[in-house]
Amino acid sequence: MMRFLAIAATVVLLAACTESPQTLGSANRDVAPYQGTGKAFVAAGWRQGDKTAWESQLKARMQFGQNDYGRMN
Questions:
Q1: Which of 26, 34, 52, 65 has a 20 to 30 Å separation from 15 between CA atoms?
Q2: Average pLDDT, the chain
Q3: Any domain includes 56
Q4: What range defines the domain where residue 57 resides?
Q5: How far apart are CA 19 and CA 50, in angstroms?
Q6: HEC assignment per residue over the chain
């Protein structure tokens, strides 16, 4: 009985170490981030495919949204 429990515990531990393969589906493409996803839910002022609008949105996010020093002072 003790041997069975040891074998079962070993199998469970080894099964937890496996990882399923992570592959991309056919719908995913490798495109530039500013090209967008084709969805209607985007930030106001940003147009999909416009690189300068993308860069200005990132700059505004860094200055106003994700910069804790600027928000606190």
A1: 26
A2: 77
A3: yes
A4: 46-73
A5: 38
A6: CHHHHHHHHHHHHHHHCCCCCCCCCCCCCCCCHHHCCCCCCCCCCCCCCCHHHHHHHHHHHHHHHCCHHHHHC
